[in-house]
Amino acid sequence: MYLTNLMTKNLLIVCKQSSRSISCTQTLNIKEWRVSRGLPVNRNAEGVLTDGPDYTFLDGRPTPLLHKQKLRMLKQRDFASRIVELSSELDFAKTRHEKMIEAKEEERKTILSNRLKPKGKTLLNKK
């Protein structure tokens, strides 16, 4: 037991002393280069080889989707439904806000029209 503890301590000391820093600037430069040219950051994320089928039938039948293609399609479908849902909520919020502003303006006009009006000689003098 003592020998294994001593060996692990020595191993930890050696590992701490021999550690070195690794630079990731090359990877970052590649990503920036790809993004600056309008390419995806991950070159395997999309493309002809990724999106296309692995094989084709000679009689023209469609090939079944791959697992990742199905996942990507479902993910895109979820994104699209979420976008439609949020845009409809945004439209509802805009119309509700406009209606609230119109209601406040209408209330203000009714308050102004229901004020006490001058009577008698002052009414005749204004005309």
Outline:
With 127 residues, the protein is mainly α. Helix content is 67%, strand content 0%. The chain has a domain at 67-115.
Which helices and strands occur, and which strands form pairs?
Blueprint: H1 2-17, H2 25-36, H3 48-51, H4 67-113, H5 121-126
Protein architecture, described:
Its main location: mitochondrion. Belongs to the mitochondrion-specific ribosomal protein mL52 family. Helix content is 67%, strand content 0%. By secondary structure, the protein is mainly alpha-helical. The protein has a domain of 49 residues. The model has no long low-confidence stretch (mean pLDDT 79). The protein has 5 helices and no strands.
Rg on CA atoms, Å: 36 Å
Task: Count all strands and give the number.
Answer: 0
Structural class: mainly alpha
Given as residue ranges, the uncertain stretches (5+ residues, pLDDT < 50) are none
Proportion of beta-strand residues: under 5%
Largest sheet: none
The separation of the N and C termini measures: 112 Å
Question: Overall 3D geometry?
Answer: elongated
| Tally of helical segments | 5
Helix content: 55-70%
Search tags:
5 helices, 127 residues, single chain, elongated, mainly alpha
